[in-house]
Amino acid sequence: MANRVERKVYENKSLVIQEFISGEVVEVKSGENLVYGDLLIFDNTSKKYVKYVKATHKTKIGEALLRVYNSDKNITVADEGVVVVRQGRLNKAIFKGIDWSSLDADDYKLIAQLERLNIILEEVK
Fold first, then answer.
1. Structural domains of the chain in order of their starting residue, each with its CATH number
2. What percent of the chain has a predicted confidence (pLDDT) above 90?
3. Closest by alpha carbon to 119, among 81, 89, 96, 75?
């Protein structure tokens, strides 16, 4: 009798592996284009979150409040709240904010700050 069990491998397309504290809704600066897994950083001047840009924000990492956009809808924000991850284990393949092919000292500082905030990046197999 032939084996009737068929093995299939499914690709994991979920950003969040495990959340330690439930997500929150934060206000994002108007005009930001957000994609699933984008890193957000709190901007003290506008008192809203903005999309992390390494060239602009790398000097502010040490004291930064960081969150990760957690919605499967790609949107352009018009001063509204979006759902973000505060703390948890995340799939680093979906996380945007670090170019894994060319890590430098600033990327390691960002990873360290994320870990201080209990945002852990893991490789999902």
1. 22-122 (2.40.300.10)
2. 48
3. 89
